[in-house]
Fold this sequence. Notes:
Elements: H1 10-48, H2 50-54, H3 57-65, H4 67-71, E1 75-76, H5 87-98, H6 110-129, E2 137-142, H7 145-155, E3 163-167, H8 172-175, H9 177-183, E4 187-191, E5 193-194, E6 199-200, H10 202-209, E7 218-223, H11 237-243, E8 247-251, E9 270-274, H12 276-279, E10 286-291, H13 292-295, E11 308-312, E12 317-320, H14 337-350, H15 352-372, E13 382-385, E14 396-401, H16 411-420, E15 423-424, E16 426-428, H17 433-439, H18 444-447, H19 459-466, E17 473-477, H20 484-495
Parallel strand pairs: 1-15, 3-4, 3-7, 7-8, 8-9
Antiparallel strand pairs: 2-10, 5-6, 9-10, 11-12, 13-14, 14-17, 16-17
Amino acid sequence: xxxxxxxxxxxxxxxxxxxxxxxxxxxxxxxxxxxxxxxxxxxxxxxxxxxxxxxxxxxxxxxxxxxxxxxxxxxxxxxxxxxxxxxxxxxxxxxxxxxxxxxxxxxxxxxxxxxxxxxxxxxxxxxxxxxxxxxxxxxxxxxxxxxxxxxxxxxxxxxxxxxxxxxxxxxxxxxxxxxxxxxxxxxxxxxxxxxxxxxxxxxxxxxxxxxxxxxxxxxxxxxxxxxxxxxxxxxxxxxxxxxxxxxxxxxxxxxxxxxxxxxxxxxxxxxxxxxxxxxxxxxxxxxxxxxxxxxxxxxxxxxxxxxxxxxxxxxxxxxxxxxxxxxxxxxxxxxxxxxxxxxxxxxxxxxxxxxxxxxxxxxxxxxxxxxxxxxxxxxxxxxxxxxxxxxxxxxxxxxxxxxxxxxxxxxxxxxxxxxxxxxxxxxxxxxxxxxxxxxxxxxxxxxxxxxxxxxxxxxxxxxxxxxxxxxxxxxxxxxxxxxxxxxxxxxxxxxxxxxxxxxxx
Length: 505
């Protein structure tokens, strides 16, 4: 699947502009009706989802911390890409910086010690938030979840006869570890997801787990929640895999923003996270939460400033620092790291369970409404990739639009029109090619021609190979500040495609 967003050409833009002009002429006539429709729809929603009413405190939170959304008439539906920060988070961090003097923590002078204390305090707060026993787990700060995954990949002691097992629907940062595994002679094995729900077949997984070689290094990686389909894979897999000789890498980047991950109950060896996906601010800080015994088995391929206790030029040797210090290259992002503790306390105050309940109600309503949309000829407007109910799925909804003749509407057109309506969503394949390939029925034989030449393939060449298959999709995702107005406005936007043919070819 394509890995980056592509722009549309001038002819397509001209078509979009004509379509927009048509919609704008209808806008004044429709506005009053939409408001009446919203009031009725919201009343029905609250009746059908009484749990939503019990967490109405989040409406106050939105008005207090995210007022800029409504002031700017923005509909934000890209929480899987990155959450939004509360205003109080930024104020608290700015107050901390403005009232103190902090220095690089790699020293024992007063300003360095003050910063060291805050960094270690934040490290402890991460363990506390995820209920990770400090005697068992430690935290390695990274730039993001991808940085945490690269640490595992480059340091994992793969050898010939070992296995790297992963599910089809992993993020590319997890897929990329396969290159380290293959370079060291390990076998890479994928377990496919099955349409239409894009879940893992348990029998296939069980057979793959039997591949672990006793005494070898076997790593199993999977997402707690797919960033493509929203599918939530069972955390019970962790214990099952470990019992068969696997170490487990859990990608929690899409799961943690709206779900509780309790590491006192579940015991993965490695967990990758990006904090901006949980509470929006700061960016540039993620972490690897690692079991200390698993971390001690990693072997770094290089050393850097801050990772060693002793290094010599003439002696031609070095000693890595123990624990997490041996994996934090150079100086950590020390002025930003304290904002992580502020963010975690903020989420604790709001309540992750309340956030989870709220987005589940909204996502279920959104799925019901979208799947009910039909053209005049009764054909469906959208195709949902993944489960169409709320069972074992998160608030990430990926779709494509189809016209009355079942022709795919280019996702790039949808995104451009959404932007005109002040709706922020995401399109493409979301760095998750395996899920997209499975969802669209693409085979190994169809995709092989894309990689026969060393020269980089263009997006247009890739579309030609796809021969009518979808090369991307539209993703809508909900989070801490989402409310009914957001999902209602998106479904009203979606209705504009009913009975419309806006193909460009």
